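Course assignment 3, question 2. Fill in each field.
Student: A.L.
Task: Predict the tertiary structure for the chain below.
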Amino acid sequence: MIELIVFVIASLMVIGGALGVILRRNPVHAALSLVLTLFGIAVHFVALEAHFLAAVQVIVYAGAIVVLFLFVIMLLGVDKAENLRTEPMMRQRILGPLVGVGVLGLVGTAIIVARSRSILQNTEGLQDVEHDDNVRQLARSLFSDYVFAFELTSVLLVIAVVGTVLLARRPNKGLQAARKKAGVES
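Answer field:
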């Protein structure tokens, strides 16, 4: 009974946070709603006894990634009001719903295919494996074989943030001339 209560509360956290990400107008509030969603997913991981994934979910995603989002939001000043009459990407309004319908179709197909298959086809030998062995193998692999890839990924994220800031802060002379002509102040 307690598992059901935990599942319902965590699911409400995930759904409420996801709706907050979509419906909030303030980008900082949307990012904080994302934190709520990620904590709800971490609770689901704990309920499934996947404690390592729950810790990674909280530390990496709710901690580092959302802080990175907030850093970029604050640095770019996204919360400022913009003129909504100028549409820089008109095709986006047409392609957005099409991509959404395509993604929903793919998810629906994946659900239908997954229901027809057995998830665990071969469970032979799983009872003999200790729980800590997987964590040790993962840690050994991450900190020996793939340490260079993770360091390279962190450098790539820093470069992406710096590039985004530079592109956003660079004055676009053609856009400034068009705004002056239209009488819109930046």
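Instructor remarks: DSSP finds seven helices and no strands in the chain. The mean pLDDT is 78.
Grade: pending
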